[in-house]
């Protein structure tokens, strides 16, 4: 067993370390349930981030959606800030790719629909993800798609150092040009993810439109979900009905 964090969360084992902190599997000593714990230290735990953590605690822990890993608690532990989320049983998309088990074309459409639905819920709540990549998409043992790191960007963007770290790994071209991040940047990241998964398949057109250089030309998360859910339904997936794939120009944002 590892250390006890926040006087409540007993670390079981580490999951990964990245530019935005360390993530562990832990056990909630009050409930006995497994959780994931991300720790923020150093400049990512600066006073502005700590203030936002406490001010936004209710808002972030209240967000619930079938395609998001719920934020369960936001707290502190000595020199660290702690984001506690539900533990999602399954494998990250990155793990699937590294172990030689890439999703087939039908599963790609379902992944696109699930991620887009999760982003739509976040954007509706006034939140950006800003860390969408194969490591933050989990495919559960029952075939569901869950997006992790729901609260991370909203907290660390309270400081210039946090914003710089988020921007450094973001693929959207407008961010490199100095624009402030918006929902369209998350959609560009989804387009990059789908491009790498769908060289052929039912959402390759959507992947291309999501990577439009002009953020105003990209589909919104809701539109992306509609298209990918329709593709998933046509291929026998479970993402639900929607409109067919677009042809011609991308829809106007809205």
Q: How would you characterize this protein structure?
A:
- The chain has 254 residues and is of the alpha+beta class.
- The protein has two domains: 4-86, Phosphorylase Kinase, domain 1 (2-Layer Sandwich), CATH 3.30.200.20; 90-234, Transferase(Phosphotransferase) domain 1 (Transferase(Phosphotransferase), domain 1), CATH 1.10.510.
- The protein has helices at residues 47-55, 57-62, 93-98, 105-124, 152-156, 160-169, 173-176, 183-197, 204-210, 221-234, and strands spanning 4-5, 9-18, 21-28, 34-40, 71-77, 80-86, 90-92, 137-140, 145-147.
- The strands form two sheets. The chain has a six-stranded antiparallel β-sheet.
- Strand 1 (4-5) and strand 2 (9-18) form a beta hairpin.
> Biggest β-sheet, characterized?
6 strands, antiparallel
Helicity level? 25-40%
Cα end-to-end separation? 49 Å
Identify the CATH class of the largest domain.
Mainly Alpha
| Overall tally of structural domains | 2
Radius of gyration: 18 Å
Q: What is this structure's SSE topology?
A:
Blueprint: E1 4-5, E2 9-18, E3 21-28, E4 34-40, H1 47-55, H2 57-62, E5 71-77, E6 80-86, E7 90-92, H3 93-98, H4 105-124, E8 137-140, E9 145-147, H5 152-156, H6 160-169, H7 173-176, H8 183-197, H9 204-210, H10 221-234
Antiparallel strand pairs: 1-2, 2-3, 3-4, 4-6, 5-6, 7-8, 8-9
Helix pairs in contact: 4-8, 4-10, 8-9
Features:
about 250 residues, alpha+beta, Phosphorylase Kinase, domain 1, Transferase(Phosphotransferase), domain 1, 2 domains, six-stranded antiparallel β-sheet, three-stranded antiparallel β-sheet, 9 strands, disordered C terminus
